[in-house]
Amino acid sequence: MSRPDVKYWSDRLGADVYLHIHHYCHALVQIQHYLESMRKQSGLINAAQRNLDYSIDQTPEEHPILLDLLLSKSYLFELSFDFEAAEALALQVQQVDPKRVQVYVQLSRIYWIDKQPDRALSILSRGISATDSKILKQRHENFKAKVAAYQDTTTSHTQEP
Fold first, then answer.
1. How far apart are the C-alpha atoms of 85 and 78, rounded to whole Å?
2. Hey, is 82 helix, strand or coil?
């Protein structure tokens, strides 16, 4: 006994494709679950931002934890791919405390993710000058190696044999 919908789709897609199309259906369901999870994640980020905003509003400007709160808010912007806002907050912290290593780590990550490797290397160099941090030196070397490796692969593909 044949169901009309099975025959319809089997004729349309071809029997060999129809047998495997359930994988496509599973993929669509998985994409939907992913999108729903992103919405949930977005809700968590929004909740975190509200909590950070409240904490920032309630913290006196001279309190040392304010800079940590601003860096955390910068990180939330980074997670939301709002690189301009993330950078602005991190630079604000850098102006107040130019010896804070985390600022340079965060700015370098923002620039790196935003596909600005030269700016990432530059901010790390400035951080090394300001702090003499081993962490920043190591990060600078790692980024430099990644840039060199990337340039090697793009150069080798564009050169004539």
1. 8
2. coil
Q: Give the global pTM.
A: 0.72
Last residue of a domain, one of 58, 90, 107: 58
Reported as a single tens digit per residue, the pLDDT across 36-65 is 887 777 778 888 888 999 999 998 888 889
Claim to verify: residue 95 and residue 154 sit in the same structural domain: yes
- 101: amino acid identity, one letter: V
Place of tokens 């990550």: 109
How many domains is the chain built from? 2
Distances in whole angstroms, Cα of residue 75 to Cα of each of 41, 43, 87, 103, 106: 15, 16, 9, 11, 8
Residue with tokens 């060999």: 16
Domain hosting residue 86, numbered range: 60-161
